[in-house]
Automatic annotation (TrEMBL):
The keyword Phosphoprotein does not apply. GO terms for biological process: 2'-deoxyribonucleotide biosynthetic process; DNA replication; intein-mediated protein splicing. The keyword Nuclease does not apply. This is Ribonucleoside-triphosphate reductase class III catalytic subunit. Residues 508-535 form a coiled coil. Residues 769-919 form the DOD-type homing endonuclease domain. Residues 4-97 form the ATP-cone domain. GO terms for cellular component: anaerobic ribonucleoside-triphosphate reductase complex. It comes from the Bacteria. Keywords: ATP-binding, Autocatalytic cleavage, Coiled coil, Nucleotide-binding, Protein splicing.
């Protein structure tokens, strides 16, 4: 045996010293007045003898093993009191170690928050990165340790730390979510805590709304989750009538309410997470109830104020759609609408609600038609009726606990993928589920008892006051609140357990079996404890990431994550899918959204590109970083975009421009034909053309086939399919992320001429003349001193070796300006050149008017804005023809059109104009071969594109070199660039840029050539965004009548931010990104100010 070293708790090995055992036993004996060196020596000797037996074959003894032996020997030797003191000594030292570690880690805790390196920084999607957030984060760490070390059972705490389950909101010593009684607030006013300011019951609408705001903000400080009120419109409608308010006044009051509800003054720089239930029509149980105004019952009843309810609901819906000063939706309160059997679907007064739903998907709907919920559930909870503990019920109000005086004590989520990975068969799977459920139940029961005690002690003074009637009836404040157990990653659990996902019949059947057994277990808990339990797909904003991260550390790549391929190939951060989709008919799972997998899904994610790339706008091709910088001055500004639904290009209004830090993301460099060289974030999507497959079905009629031979047979016997297939476009537009692109993929470009069909001051002849002038013309300024007048004059010149070009220019000038100029030979040193010149005022003034200038121009020449403004769908080809006739040529062998210039500005102008006209074009560097010449640029139009436009060109030279037929290689005719190479690269500047457009189309961007790239914010729709109020109503009604989900929400649009992920609603830009951008701007301004002071 080797007792030279002992292994400490942190894994370090230190020298073994038996006197430490002597000292520890001696201190424990002294603590119970039995100090005796002989006892300490006796116990130490016995412990050493055990160690020699246990470690006779080698190994290193651990501290915990020695301490366990000391306890064992003390008890065996009859020193029970010393043993008890020693156990207490161990426990105290354990706490001391934890405390020391907590304070020692204080600096790391702050760094983790400031660097956003801890997943817990983002656990709550409603919490903003801020100083208040930092303070809350630090306090939450301490509170979390208190829960784990002082309150929860050791076994449960270890299961949380290891990732077998997740105890939510450890950072708060409080209840989770609460539904409160609005009637009580209107009857009593906002009060209840001695020494604190009290409000009398409200007499006016604005006063009532103000007290609701104060109530929500204050009570949010006594809970970690959502605050909710039911019957919001029913209870407030009478105030409108008693105040004699018109619609504008109601809307103004509601606007003040919404702004106040979204101010981030809650702890952690948050807005209160709030929900209100709107009845839309007065529920039967309130129809004949006397209204409350100023805390007093009035003669009239709530059923008499439907008109005012309509007014309030209209104002709320309109304001939610209008949003704040920047048009952003209000996050809170989230409205819930009750859908009942007698719901008035054709009520036009509810159109604003349907418009809000169609546009943004803001509301939740309570399904009282086809679910097992009873509208009286809310009333029974409100009236403090005891529920049948043999029946597993829903707590009401979805995840918000909206029913009065109910909610959730706390939430514990199970790590289902780990269960699936570890279980060998179905029996073991369920045993592991039951074990974790038992631990979750134990922790929730402990929490319930702690909260009761702390409420009694006055830690939650306002909750104590407003729950006083519950306390009187049940002798418990939180009796109506549920213990909530949730689950995460059922899809990955099935993949790890049986190799089937949740969409398969096997996966769906087993998930239903698991959920049914979990429900039965909860019923047992409810009968056993007489406390309410419910099963929910809990919102796992960061739990899915935490579980996956811990599982990967424990099991490596063997355990399957939702993004398994990227985890293995690219070392991406793993994650699990949120919760699970329950099979139809199993209604215990209250989701935050109705998940119809075939219809409601996010089809796109956003991306961004590095600086230097230009975006093609109606104000020209502008560098994307300049659009971001000058957006406020540039707007309104439109981008050339691609409408995927209608398969066409169009102008789309840019609604925001932003910069994004991509330092934590992979950067992908894409090199393709036509000079495309673009670096994007790894999530950045491109539109790619793929050939339509005929292996599985006929693309014309949709009939199933088995391979290409089967398709050939199908067309042989179906002449209509054969005829249509022969002429149809055989490619489809699909989307691929940058990190999914392969060599040979074809990225989509613009092929439509988006210049307007309008009257222009520049006809085809004049536009050709301008194009020709840019290459072979010049204006010289000279002084005419005849008569001593020193007059400044100009002389227009064209120099060319091609007489045909000059003849055309002469004819246009003589015709347009009534001159009579002729071509002359140039000086003898340039025998090949001919010259066409005029100093006529009208001619020179015309060119100067359109932005051309006198003097040297070779390095600064461009296409003036005045010319660009007059380009039309027709004359753009004449401008191109003039350019070609000057410094351009057509390759005799290939048929490509090339144009050479030493002006990069001109090269970029040509790329901009031709891209807008739908002409495939690219810009290439053309290094000079001579020392005394500067490098230039070659603009190239491929032969296939030249053939397509040759009949629209008006060139005078090289026209015969244009090819007559398109290539038989169909892909060469497509408006695409072929990917040559993709690679992951590191770059110094991690500030990338992107735009959002009004219709969320892909916009045209690039540098040497342009391709369609993605918006930062793109939306997943129910097939497509719902534009019809009627369609929205039908969809909501159909779901209520055909699905048994008790709560659901439509999300016709939601947003994906590449930095912050899922954002409910149609955000034009990510509010979190904006906050970070503002913080970064402030930081830069401070640094600038400091440098100026220095």
């Amino acid at each position: 045996m080797n007792l030279d070293y002992v292994k400490k708790r942190d894994g370090k090995k230190v020298e073994f010293k038996s006197e430490k055992i002597v000292n520890a036993v001696g201190k424990a004996a002294a603590a119970v007045d039995q100090a005796d060196p002989k006892i300490a020596a006796e116990i130490t000797a016995e412990v050493l003898s055990y160690l020699k037996i246990f470690f006779k074959n080698g190994g290193t003894v651990e501290v915990e093993q020695i301490q366990d032996l000391v306890e064992k020997v003390l008890i065996e030797k009859g020193y029970a009191e010393i043993a008890k003191a020693y156990i207490l000594y161990r426990e105290q030292h354990s706490k001391l170690r934890d405390s020391k570690k907590l304070f020692a880690d204080a600096v790391n805790i702050m760094d983790d928050y400031l660097d956003r390196s801890d997943w817990k920084v983002n656990e709550n999607s409603n919490m903003s990165y801020s100083l208040q957030g930092l303070n809350n984060y630090i306090a939450s760490e301490v509170t979390g340790q208190y829960w784990l070390q002082e309150i929860y059972p050791k076994e449960t705490a270890e299961l949380h730390s290891s990732g077998d389950l997740h105890i939510h909101d450890l950072g708060n010593l409080s209840v989770y979510c609460c539904g409160w009684d609005l009637e009580e607030l209107l009857r009593s006013g906002f009060r209840g805590v001695p020494t604190k300011i009290e409000s009398a019951p409200p007499k006016h609408l604005k006063t009532a709304l103000g007290q609701i705001v104060n109530f929500m903000y204050t009570l949010q400080g006594e809970a970690s989750g959502a605050m909710a009120f039911s019957n919001f419109d029913t209870y407030l409608a009478p105030f409108i009538a008693y105040d004699g308010l018109n619609y504008e006044e109601v809307k103004q009051a509601m606007q003040e309410f919404l702004f106040n509800m979204n101010v981030p003054t809650r702890v952690g720089f948050q807005s209160p997470f709030t929900n209100i239930t709107m009845d839309l029509e007065v529920p039967s149980y309130l129809e004949d109830q006397a209204v409350i105004i100023g805390g007093q019952y009035q003669e009239k009843c709530y059923g008499e104020f439907q008109e005012e309810m309509d007014m309030l609901n209209r104002a709320f819906a309109e304001l939610m759609m209008e949003g704040d000063a920047k048009g952003r939706m209000f996050s809170f309160p989230i409205p819930t609408y009750n859908i009942t059997e007698d719901f008035e679907w054709e009520n036009e007064k509810l159109d604003p609600v349907w418009e809000m739903t169609a546009k943004f998907g803001i509301p939740y709907f309570s399904n009282f038609i086809n679910s097992d919920m009873d509208p009286e559930d809310a009333r029974s909870m409100c009236c403090r009726l005891r529920l049948d503990n043999k029946e597993l019920r829903k707590r009401g109000g979805g995840l918000f606990g909206a029913n009065p005086l109910t909610g959730s004590i706390g939430v514990v989520t199970l790590n289902m993928p780990r269960i699936g990975y570890q279980a060998q068969d179905k029996e073991e799977f369920m045993q592991r589920v039951y074990y974790l459920m038992d631990q979750a139940k134990e922790s929730l029961e402990v929490k319930r008892k702690v909260l009761e005690t702390l409420t009694e002690q006055g830690l939650y003074p306002y909750a104590k006051f407003y729950l006083r009637d519950i306390k009187k009836r049940f002798n418990q404040y939180w009796k109506n609140h549920f213990n909530t157990i949730g689950l995460n990653g059922m899809n990955e659990a099935l993949l790890n357990f049986m190799g089937k996902d949740i969409s398969t019949p096997e996966g769906q059947q087993f998930s239903e079996e698991v959920m049914k057994k979990m429900r039965e277990r909860l019923q047992q808990y409810q009968e056993e404890t007489e406390n309410l339990y419910n099963l929910e797909a809990t919102p796992a904003e960061s739990t899915a990431y935490r579980f996956a991260r811990l599982d990967r550390e424990k099991f490596g790549d063997r355990i399957i994550a939702a993004n398994q391929e990227r985890v293995v190939k690219e070392d991406a951060d793993p994650y699990y899918t949120n919760s699970t989709q329950l099979p139809v008919g199993l209604t215990d799972d209250i989701f935050t959204a109705l998940e119809l997998q075939d219809e409601l899904q996010s089809l796109y994610t956003g991306g961004c590109i590095e600086k230097g790339n230009k975006v093609l706008t109606n104000k020209g091709a502008i560098k994307i970083e300049e659009i971001v910088r000058d957006y406020e001055n540039l707007k309104p500004i439109k981008a050339l975009s691609y409408n995927a639904k209608e398969d066409r290009s169009e102008w789309d209004l840019i609604t925001d421009a932003m910069s994004i830090d991509v330092s934590k993301n992979n950067k992908i460099r894409v090199i393709a034909e036509k000079g495309l060289d673009i670096t994007t974030s790894d999530w950045h999507p491109f539109f790619v053309l793929e050939k339509i497959s005929v292996k599985d079905k006929c693309p014309v009629c949709g009939e199933k086939v088995k391979g290409t031979k089967s398709f050939s047979t199908h067309t042989r016997y179906n002449p209509e399919c054969r005829k249509k297939y022969k002429t149809m476009f055989k490619f489809k537009v699909v989307e691929k992320r940058a990190d999914e692109l392969n060599v040979g993929d074809y990225i989509l470009q613009n092929s439509e001429n988006l210049y307007p069909e309008k009257e222009s001051l520049l006809d085809n002849d004049l536009m050709w003349l301008f194009g020709y002038f840019i290459g072979d013309g010049s204006i010289n300024e000279y002084e005419d001193n005849r008569g001593g007048n020193h007059l400044k004059k100009y002389k227009l010149r064209f120099n060319d070796e091609h007489l045909s070009n000059l003849e055309k220019a002469k004819k246009i000038i003589n015709n347009k300006f009534k001159t009579n100029i002729n071509i002359i030979k140039n000086d003898k040193r340039s025998k090949k050149l001919f010259e066409l010149a005029t100093n006529m005022y009208s001619v020179n003034e015309f060119f100067l008017k359109y932005g051309f200038f006198s003097g040297e121009k070779c390095y600064e020449v461009n296409i003036p804005e005045q010319v660009k403004a007059n380009i039309t769908k027709n004359n753009v080809y004449s401008l191109l023809s003039g350019l070609i006739d000057s410094d351009g040529h057509i390759n005799k062998k290939q048929g490509d059109i090339e144009y050479y210039t030493v002006s990069e500005e001109l090269a970029d102008d040509i790329v901009e104009i031709l891209s807008t006209a739908g002409i495939m074009v690219s810009k290439e560097d053309k290094p000079s071969k001579r020392k005394n010449e500067v490098d230039g640029f070659r603009i190239r139009i491929p032969a296939q594109q030249a053939i397509k436009i040759k009949n629209k060109l008006t060139i005078t030279n090289d026209a015969d070199f244009l090819k007559g037929k398109l290539s038989l290689r169909k892909r060469r005719q497509l408006p695409v660039v072929r990917v040559k190479k993709t690679s992951k690269i590191e770059i110094e500047d991690n500030e990338f840029y992107d735009l959002t457009t009004e219709k969320n189309h892909n916009y045209l961007a690039g540098n040497r050539t342009m391709v369609f790239i993605h918006n930062t914010v793109l939306h997943g729709f129910l097939g497509e965004k719902i534009d019809s109020i009627e369609a929205t109503k039908k969809l909501v009604k159909r779901i209520a009548e055909n699905f048994k989900l008790p709560y659901y929400t439509l999300t016709p649009s939601f947003s994906i931010c590449p930095v912050h992920g899922y954002l409910p609603g149609e955000h034009e830009y990510c509010p979190k990104c904006e906050a970070e951008a503002e913080a970064e701007e402030n930081r830069r301004e401070n640094l600038k100010a400091e440098s100026e002071v220095e």
